[in-house]
Amino acid sequence: MDTHRPQLTMMIKPASAACNLACDYCFYVDTAHHRELGVLPLMNSEVADAIIQKIRICTRELTSE
User: Which residue, 4, 18, 26, 29, is the most exposed by fewest CB within 10 angstroms?
Assistant: First the structure.
């Protein structure tokens, strides 16, 4: 019996110093103080939507096999 399941692996990069979770282990805030531009721009909503759409397509392809 084949128990292999297709899987999708993805990485979502943290929002750098713009993140508001305030984790105790975070190193981004200290790093931002040493940059010329402390907080880098975040991705716009069009890019986020395109990524979500691609994930949906990949998920459908994996689950239909």
Answer: 4
Q: Which 8-state DSSP code applies to residue 24?
A: T
Of 9, 5, 23, the closest CA to residue 63 belongs to 5
What single-letter amino acid sits at 20?
Answer: N
Who contacts 42 (Cβ-Cβ below 8 Å, separation ≥6)? 15, 18
How far CA 27 is from CA of 15, 23, 30, 32, 41, in Å, comes to 12, 9, 6, 9, 18
Could you read off the pLDDT of 29-51 as tens digits, one per residue? 677 777 777 666 778 899 889 98
